[in-house]
Amino acid sequence: MTTKTRRPITPAATATSWQSSAACRTADPELFFPVGKGPEAEHRTAQAKQVCATCPVQDDCRTWALETGQTAGIWGGTTEADRWDAGMLQTLRAERRSVERARPAFDRCLAAQDFIEERYAAGVSLRRIGRELGVGYDAVRRALRFFEEQAAAEQAAAAGMETAA
Ligand code: SF4
């Protein structure tokens, strides 16, 4: 007896914001979950990829599959093997490790926002500010950019409120 790994729903039926635009909304879910490696599975894989090729949310779907670690099925026009062969999974894992390593330094910068902004306004280099905080240059640079984006968003929100008043 063959044990089938089946996805009961198409990617379009997953609880994500892009699902309503998915090209596989009305497709046969079996296509996206071919079983085995024979000609029939290859045929189904090809058919599913054809549907994906017309899909306006292909990138969102593939990213979602990578981020949620979908180990089977066709997502965003890729099989698990495609995702692995193309180095997508390895890249994502490396990025995650990199983000995890960088997070404590970034958090330290967030907690020192006033200090960083004052030192930066005084003309102190990012490298030196980093040394003073015990973090790397990159963490200070990213934090400053974050502060600037935050300030811009607050200004835009305030301007919107004034216009509405
Ligand atoms: S890319 Fe393919 S699997 Fe993903 S939502 Fe579109 S049609 Fe469905």
UniProtKB/TrEMBL annotation:
Organism of this sequence: Streptomyces fradiae ATCC 10745 = DSM 40063
UniProt cross-references to HAMAP family, sorted A to Z: WhiB
What does the record give under GO molecular function? 4 iron, 4 sulfur cluster binding; dinitrosyl-iron complex binding; DNA binding; metal ion binding; protein-disulfide reductase [NAD(P)H] activity
Q: What does the UniProt function comment say about this protein?
A: Acts as a transcriptional regulator. Probably redox-responsive. The apo- but not holo-form probably binds DNA.
Q: Matching PANTHER family, A to Z? A: TRANSCRIPTIONAL REGULATOR WHIB1, TRANSCRIPTIONAL REGULATOR WHID-RELATED
Q: Looking at the UniProt record for this protein, which Gene Ontology cellular component terms does it annotate, in alphabetical order?
A: cytoplasm
Show the InterPro entries listed in the entry. Answer: 4FE4S_WBL, Whib
Cofactor(s) recorded for this entry are: [4Fe-4S] cluster
What this protein is called in its record is Transcriptional regulator WhiB
